[in-house]
Predict the 3D structure of the following.
Amino acid sequence: MQSGTKPTAGVRPERRDGVQADAADVRPPTRRKDRLLGGVNIAIGAILAYLVLFPLGVLVYSSFKDSEFKLPFQVSGFSLANFTGILSSERLLEVALNSLIFVVGTVVLALVISVSLAYLFERTDIPGRRVLAPSTLAPMAVPATVMAVAWVLAANPANGPLALAVERTLGFTVNIYSLPGMILVAGIFGVPGMYIMLAPAFARLNQEFEEAAATSGAGWLTRTRKVVLPLTMPAITAASMLLVVIALEEFAIPAMLGMPNQIYVFSSYVQAALQPPGGLPDYGQASAYGILLVLLSLVMIAVYRRQTREAHRFRVVSGKGYRATPVLLGRWRIPIAVLVSLYVLVAIVVPILTLVWTSLTPFLQPISLDSLDGLSLANYSSIFTDPHLSHALVNTLVISLLTATLTAAFGSWLALASTRGGFVGRVLFDLSFLVFAIPSVVLGMAVLFLYLFVPVPVYGTVWIIVIALTTRYIPRGSRMIQTSLLQLDPGLEEVARVSGASSVTVMRRVVFPLVAPAVSRTWLWVFANALGELPIALLLSSSDNRTVVVLLWDMIGESADYPEASALAVLLLALSSVSVWWVNRRGFQQHM
Amino acid sequence: MQKTVSSDHSVEITGLEKRYAPQRSGESSRGIEDVTFAVPRSEFLTLLGPSGCGKSTTLRCLAGLETADRGTISMNGRPMFSAVDGQNVSPERRPIAMVPQSYGIWPHMKVFDNAAFPLRYGRTTYSKAETQQRVLAMLEQVGLTEYADRWSTQLSGGQQQRLALARALLCEPEVLLLDEPLSNLDAKLRSSLRAELRSFQQKFGVTTIYVTHDQGEALAMSDTIVVMNQGRIEQIGSPNDIYDSPASRFVADFVGSANLVPGVTETAVGPGARVVEAKTAVGVVRCERFTSPATPPTAGQELFVCIRPENIRVVAGAPESEGPNRFSARILSSEYLGDRQEVVVTVGDTPLRAHADAHLDARPGDEVTAVLDPLWTIALWS
């Protein structure tokens, strides 16, 4: 459930072909250029293959090695033992069932909340929209790991203020360490991404469609059921499919909330098999599960792309923009606004406040005025003085900076290849979409195997994490940049060329300055997301390259040092909020 | 802006007012002010005006899609909206049907389902068989029978417009509201659908309120035209009235083309006066057509003389015979249009557009006589 932007690569703007054709007309087909283009495409292909295919290949290879507790390549011969093993164990059924419940629950919850919010904010006269709408999007700035920690603190049955409040007022016990708990947190976490996909669909839906139904005599319920929802359905299904893929790979939330009671979904089970709390890692089983997860993800991605490809079938074109008259809520106005505010309060404000509160306390205690005196910044000062923690902070920053820079650079290159690199470039760009289907746990595992296998000395350094994270963010980064390239009017380049500029000059003076904002936005987006990315950092961590999220994981899971963990989480949250705010400061944009 | 109180009226609006908060972009607000008119049963009334004049706002207030700040609306004697009583019947409960500007044809439904919507989910619902029969009959009327099973997105613009009309008529409305339904079509289609629309209206005898900015449409189709400008009603009248006796400079200029010459009233206009003499840059012009404003114009009061190009006769040579409104003029330019020549002549320094005989032999610079037919020369004080 990454925040910010979504890969809706299936919806490809029609203009692409136009751009392509125009570019081809303008460029004289010289041999030298063809060779250059070919070389560039080969280089891109080679890098993509190295980043994506190698690790996946090693993963497939390992899954056919009956390695159990040995490293896969120390075993000779191939066998299906891993697959027969997991298929015949009851664990698979349990994990599959948990995953199914988790994914479906998360999607349904996020769907209900985000469709209601998108409808309320875009089509009704709900008061306080200017404050409420951005508030509901706030989880976008919260890394999943931080979100999970905040919820652990806010809703743990022992002293979480939310759990206590519910117990006192409604009389039942909330256990956040359960499947419903995971669904609740992951669902809330999935709302902003979905809202951003749905809001434009509701906003752009031509008012006339609803008005035509109203003047035909249909009441609000009929209108909504027969006209508004069917017309927004393509967007709703596309967003749901995407959330299915994202929920399937979500790691931090199910892992942190499921671990205490041994509730595993696919992603957390892969990690548990690789890094069991006690005992030896089972590489064979982990890779077999990984393969299963990739296949599942691939199917979902395929369904998603099919869905979005057909979405244009009834594209709802807005006519002349008559200012939308909002649906009048009448006497429901205030109650609904209160309900939405309550959602913001319970789902977002209270967990984050609890987190901040805990970070200021010496030990875990319920929020109360009495303990106000005991608050101090001690936890923060220990972060900066403890060499372990400060080392992790430096690692995190180095990794995020490097990842953001590499992704922005290679992403721009790939995006340029897709719009200017002819057929091969486009195919390569499309192929990079496959990375979306590799859950980050699996990607982490595959990269781990690869560098245990090949003699490149990156294992144990920050570089191995940088490589894995860059691979993960390249498809999204390149799509963010490609969108802005596609929006460039080809006329701008043609005019420059007609004025006598060489193609290099055109790139340097026209294309780059115009695409620069998108590149910097991509950089920031990757930076924000790399900060909080847990599974890859966790699987690839060793003593020297531990990052803040990994420490956070350890503190919550093993040492249970909540106050210091909270301070770390708050720090992470602050860093990520600033960059997410920066990315979106000109309004939330839908890329790809 | 006469107030008519009679149960014979299908729609009555009094003192309707709607204000919009000024927008940041400096966009002109589309508010309306003191809009009052009544539509007799089965009549075709057109709200005519430039964009932003408030005609669409008026229509949307009638449909209940927009809530006015002041005034009342009643349909067939039943109150629909009253700002004072806080009464506001929602669109789905008003006895109306509407064809929106871009038709509002639902793209996720087949043609048949679009048309059947009001019979299935509308004010009065019908059995399946009855719906089927009525919808097919209506599609037959508008010539869309063979398209019933197609997706509505496969229809052309003109077909969509007919489908929207069919759907509206299936609502069995007492009042049919049409919001510039022809504006999205090309010119040729527009004129044929114009006639079609009018014949449907007459066949079904439904009271119709039609919004347009196209004066040609308004003149061709309406029983009554309400000309609006900047949120206010400029004039209400039959197409003849509006064209021949515009009540204001705006109406004269907006409907058809008109020469407007500023001047002053020569002598005070008494209650029984039939003629106004106006002193202008052209000379003294005799106007036999005018509507006296509430306060009788006094001598020296500013006015405009309005004359349409077709009412100016252009004769070669200098004025020979004596008569009113004969002025010596010079041809400035001429355009040959086959059936006539459109010429611009200058009388003194004042240019006047005129329709001259196609075979008038006059070149730019030639001296001619411009005769302004006094019967069709209009004095305007507003």
Q: What stands out?
A: Chain B has two domains: 9-244, 257-380. The interface with chain A takes residues 56, 60, 63-66, 90-94, 96-98, 100-108, 117-118, 121-124, 151, 153, 164, 167-168, 171, 177, 184 of chain B (CB under 8 Å).
